[in-house]
Write a structure and sequence with these properties.
1113 residues; 35% strand; globular
């Protein structure tokens, strides 16, 4: 049979592809056991032994294939259910083109296929997910199956509800319960959204066709009518074995998306259950926050800074034992370097920008691990955690697999055909054109796509917000096309086993080999009527100063349901102080000193009213901008394409401000502030009055100078008249460097806060700058300046000019750089600087940091400034992407230490002395533009970061030199650039952590800041003893929103207060404790005194200036 394949359809389809003490022990042991396990943690069980032969076999036909049904390879789910309540967990598999299967657990990893006798294998259609629920409250688990194939005819997509008859058989009753959803259903979850003690139901339904674009999504979501087949729907449990569709009145409608998973839970700990929908393709994920009573608000853009683009499965879990659950959503970025260069979809900058302008969220092609900040906001730390790349992924599961008390991560992956293989798509394109899009069989096209099995991922929790890959060590080594997965203790030995549904291979059953070598506690909840298994109950285990937290849910990961048991690993610990269960109905059960190593049954009937003890928590600061800044200052960044001439630029260089300067400019004893403006926006001066508020003071010269891009600024007495003058650095990249727009400005104060510009007392400056710092560096009684150069327009990363400016005593500044500080002129891409006496000789040193720069010290010897060796100060291997340096005596030992803000650990790029991150730049193709090549190590080979397409757009000769994506992926950097490696600019970065430099008699030791300070680039740092305990405290903030889109912007920081504990130890405080919440593109922090206490000013790019009031006043 001949079939017609549209070339355009191929391209489009792939483009977006009380206190009660009781013990009921079933298993009990108090032997002290190991914290760690050696050997293979998991063993794959032979199907001939288990009796589980289920194989989700997929056959491609002319009618049903990848081109007609994009989700043909998306796989199916796993359901763990104790069918007969014998205490052994049984297994249900959904099949796409094959019948579902139900296997009864006979013990010792032997199972019996009871599918036919149970009556569950006689229902056709394309079966996707399985959810477990005791829907009729008889104490036996029932099954809900989502069906949603490429066609919806004759009820083939009608969802199924299998009621457990208590005799190993089931009766289908979806219609009678009112949940026979007939849409293109993919996923579902049962949860109690209205706290009435019965379980409601969310069902995701996808559109009925493919290649849905942004315009269609916007249009459909604006309509008033609901297309039941293609709308995600919420069903309320009426309490009488019936459900009602409440999608519209609860705020779930409007929606229109390819929702591949629905995960439910009280993720923000407000007592009401929320919904997270992972959406594939164009539409961003939905985060329905339960605002009560019985209503939701979709708030993904309010509570996250970005999400995955092709989101698949999601799980919730507390990875750091702080009592808040994180959100882990998986995507499809390859971990393997060569696959990343040959099989990744194209991320198009113009398309990305258009989606944002249409109101969609920032979306990136990698897994996200949304860290729960505890205030309802989430920050993606996947790249720091090391769990951002697991290839084409489906089911993430967050569970404690090694029973050490910390939750690990398992991820299934694999896709039957590499539909994004760039080379093969070109070949298919050519082939179809040669055949006029007419094929003899579908295999003629599909057969050209590689089919590569992958090993699933498993990560061990390092207990520091990072994870380690453990596939080989833990015995997860079988390549497969795996989709749905579930966890359960199949043999009741106290550890978690794994069940995986595979395409075209038998299902995997992995036995966990811990076998009680580590301690544990498991809880079976007997919930209230309506929720007999206690779904949604929150369980916290306390042991000493440690705690663990689990919210019980069964629907997890992707298309699957895990056991309805709460599992805690304990490692070598056997002493449990208490376990507290918070039920959905404001009841609680508290168990004192339960024994370890048992399955403990907890009955809701013995619970008591929850005793809510309101904690009076007074944070250090409260955001109070509106009452304090009049009118509000809103930074407005001008639009400019930094990538026009340097397409491979790692981030925009034209959007680096604004910055702040603070001083009393009118001698009234009150501090005022200046905030810089963007290109085509005037900087502004705000004057403080007696009420402690700030009001804009109009200065005509600032308005006149609005074309400048303001960067760093400083108030100082330039002319010795006793008032504070203002120096403002000019920056940006919009215009060629020779333009006067880069001339810095000196504004002279008349003593009352009125300023006039005086360029006559400045040298000619033609350099896009960054920072300005002032000090009397020559001991003559007047103030001198250092002005840092930031960048050269269109010549990144070549170093611009920096300037050392000497005050002649009359307010005229002389450029003495060439005469007295030659090495300073082109020292690098300077971002921050500080004058500080490092060696206690009463002479100031100049410390500089910058992009691609080491932390650099210049010393003044008889007026001549020389660059000191890195070894002298212990600064070897400090080359980084530094943004800020500040000096203070942090340990009260009398010398000055340094705090240095860097790129952080939560970024696509990583660096070390052994494997530095690198950049090369020259005009490699001779066309007059400077070509940037970022490079990293793949094993021992230096390779380019960017791929063939974008690299060849910058340097067209590469497309000819490497005709295929595979050729480019196999090439080392030397193969690509050849002799070009020896020309132009070359820099290395060896340290991306933000650090403290502890000064010990002029020699520094490096102390990394806590992990929470590594979430994002640090741009602002301020230091003060806030709690008067004699130890300095540190506040940091930052982010980097303007990274190029393949890199993913740095946006995980919400600001952080770290309390000094002495001995150079700093304790990060939560948002609730500190009051610091700055999830913006922060560029600067400054103290400002109001009513005699320090408050915080926060400058943000394309956002307001924020004021954080000190709670002590």
């Amino acid at each position: 049979m001949r079939s017609s394949i549209s070339l355009n359809s191929i391209k489009l389809d792939f483009l977006f592809i009380g206190v009660i003490i009781f013990y009921l022990s079933l298993i009990s042991c108090n032997t002290k056991k190991s914290d760690s396990f050696t050997g293979k943690l998991f063993t794959l069980q032979d199907s001939t032994i288990t009796g589980i032969h289920f194989d989700n076999s997929i056959r491609e036909t002319t009618e049903e294939n990848l081109f007609t049904f994009n989700y043909i390879y998306n796989g199916a789910g796993v359901g763990v259910i104790d069918v007969n309540n014998d205490g052994l967990q049984d297994i249900y598999f959904t099949g796409n083109q094959v019948p579902d299967k139900l296997y009864l657990n006979k013990g010792n990893f032997k199972f019996e296929d009871i599918s036919s006798s149970a009556g569950i294998d006689q229902f056709g259609g394309w079966h996707n997910s399985v959810s477990t629920v005791d829907i009729n409250n008889d104490g036996y688990m029932d099954l809900y199956i989502c069906r949603g194939g490429f066609k919806n005819v004759n009820g083939s997509n009608r969802n199924l509800l299998f009621i457990n008859n208590k005799n190993n058989t089931f009766t289908e009753q979806a219609v009678s319960y009112g949940i026979a959803d007939e849409g293109y259903s993919i996923a579902s979850s049962f949860f109690d959204y209205d706290n009435d003690n019965d379980l409601d139901l969310i069902v995701t339904n996808r559109p009925d066709h493919w290649s849905v674009n942004a315009d269609e999504i916007i249009r459909v979501k604006k309509r008033d009518s609901i297309d039941l087949a293609t709308t995600t729907r919420l069903y309320r449990n009426n309490g009488n074995n019936s459900f009602s569709d409440v999608s519209k009145e609860t705020g779930i409608f409007p929606n229109y998306s390819y929702g591949l998973s629905a995960t439910t839970g009280d993720i923000n700990n407000d007592g009401m259950c929320d919904i997270y929908i992972s959406n594939d393709f164009v539409e961003n994920d939905y985060f329905y926050i339960n605002s009560g009573p019985g209503t939701f608000q979709e708030m993904i853009k309010n509570v996250t800074n970005h999400v995955p683009y092709y989101a698949m499965g999601t799980d919730f879990g507390d990875i750091d034992n702080d009592g808040n659950e994180e959100i882990y959503s998986v995507e499809m970025r390859p971990d393997d370097y060569k696959r990343s260069k040959t099989t990744m979809p194209l991320m198009q900058p113009a398309y990305f920008r258009s989606l944002k302008s249409d109101g969609f969220h920032d979306q990136y092609m990698h897994n996200v691990l949304q860290y729960n900040q505890g205030n309802g906001f989430f920050s993606d730390i996947a790249q720091m955690a090391g769990v951002d790349k697991t290839d084409w992924s489906w089911a993430p599961l967050i569970s404690d697999f090694d029973n050490d008390g910390w939750k690990d991560i398992y991820v299934t992956n694999g896709y039957l055909r590499d539909v994004y293989d760039r080379d093969q798509n070109i070949q298919i394109d050519k082939f179809l054109k040669s055949r006029n899009n007419i094929l003899d069989s579908i295999q003629q096209a599909l057969g050209k796509l590689p089919s590569v099995k992958l090993v699933n991922y498993i990560f061990q929790n390092n207990k520091d917000l990072s994870f380690k890959k453990m596939m080989k060590n833990w015995g997860i080594e079988e390549p497969s096309f795996s989709n749905g997965a579930a966890v359960a203790d199949l043999d009741n030995d106290g550890d978690l086993d794994l069940v995986i549904n595979n395409i075209n291979d038998p299902a995997f059953i992995y036995k966990n080999n811990l076998d009680q070598q580590s301690n544990y506690l498991r809880l079976k909840l007997n919930g209230p009527h309506g929720n007999t298994y206690g779904i949604g109950a929150k369980v916290t285990l306390y042991s000493g100063d440690q705690k663990q937290y689990v919210e019980l849910r069964t629907t997890r990961g992707y298309l699957s349901s895990s056991e309805p048991i709460v599992h805690f690993g304990l490692g070598s610990n056997t002493k449990i102080d208490s376990v507290v269960i918070l039920w959905n109905s404001l009841k609680e059960t508290k168990i004192i000193n339960p024994k370890a190593n048992q399955l403990l049954t907890v009955d809701f009937s013995k619970s008591t009213d929850r005793k809510v003890q309101e904690k009076k928590l007074i944070p250090y600061f409260v955001e109070y901008s509106a009452p304090h800044i009049h009118p509000p200052f809103y930074h407005i960044e001008n639009e400019f394409d930094d990538y026009k001439n340097q397409q491979l630029l790692p981030q925009k260089m034209s959007a680096l401000g604004p910055f702040l300067a603070v001083a009393d400019v009118n001698k009234d004893g009150l501090e005022d502030f200046y905030v810089g403006g963007a290109h085509q926006q005037a900087g502004s001066l705000y004057m403080q009055n007696d009420s402690g508020t700030f009001h804009l003071k109009t200065n005509p010269i600032f308005i006149k100078d609005n074309l400048y891009e303001d960067m760093g600024s400083v108030f100082f007495d330039a002319d010795g008249d006793g008032d504070q003058d203002l120096y403002v650095v000019s920056g940006g990249t919009e215009i060629v460097e020779t333009n006067p727009i880069y001339q810095d400005r000196l504004y002279v104060n008349d003593g009352l806060g009125n300023f006039s510009k005086d360029l006559s007392n400045l040298p000619v400056i033609r350099s896009s700058g960054s920072c300005i710092i002032a000090a009397d560096i020559d001991g003559d009684g007047d103030i001198d300046l250092f002005r840092g150069g930031r960048t050269i327009p269109d010549k990144y990363p070549f170093p611009p000019k920096s300037y050392l400016l000497e005050n002649d005593g009359h307010g005229k500044f002389i450029d003495i750089t060439d005469d007295k500080a030659k090495e300073l002129r082109n020292i690098g891409m300077v971002t921050s600087a500080v004058w500080v006496d490092l060696d206690e000789d009463k002479v100031l040193e100049l410390v500089l940091v910058g992009e691609w720069m080491p932390i650099t010290v210049f010393k003044n010897s008889d007026g001549i400034w020389t660059k000191e060796s890195l070894e002298k100060y212990g600064l070897t291997n400090t080359e980084g992407w530094w943004n800020k340096v500040i000096a203070d005596d942090l340990d009260n030992d009398g010398d000055m230490d340094l705090v240095c803000g860097n790129l952080g650990e939560n970024y696509k790029f990583h660096a070390s002395p052994d494997k530095p991150f690198q950049v090369y730049c020259d005009d490699y193709d001779g066309n007059g533009t400077f070509d940037i090549v970022l490079a990293k190590y793949n094993g021992g080979d230096l390779v380019p970061v960017r791929g063939r397409q974008c690299s060849s757009e910058q340097m067209p000769f590469l497309a000819k030199k490497f005709p295929t994506y595979k050729d480019f992926a196999n090439a080392k950097l030397e193969d690509i650039l050849g002799s070009g490696l020896d020309s132009g600019a070359h820099y290395q970065a060896k340290e991306f952590r933000s650090i403290i430099l502890n000064n010990n008699k002029g020699k520094f030791s490096i102390l990394p800041l806590p992990k929470h300070a590594q979430f994002s680039p640090i741009q602002g740092i301020i230091i003060k003893d806030l709690n008067n305990d004699g130890h300095k405290d540190i506040i940091i903030a930052g982010n980097l929103y303007d990274a190029e889109i393949e890199t993913t912007r740095g946006d995980a920081s919400v600001g952080l207060l770290m309390l000094g504990k002495g001995n150079m130890e700093f304790k990060p405080l939560s948002v609730q404790e500190s009051g610091i919440f700055m999830p913006y593109n922060v560029k600067d922090l400054k103290w400002v005194t109001v009513y005699g206490v320090p408050n915080i000013l926060v400058a943000t790019n394309n956002n307001p200036v924020y004021f954080f009031r000190n709670s002590s006043k």
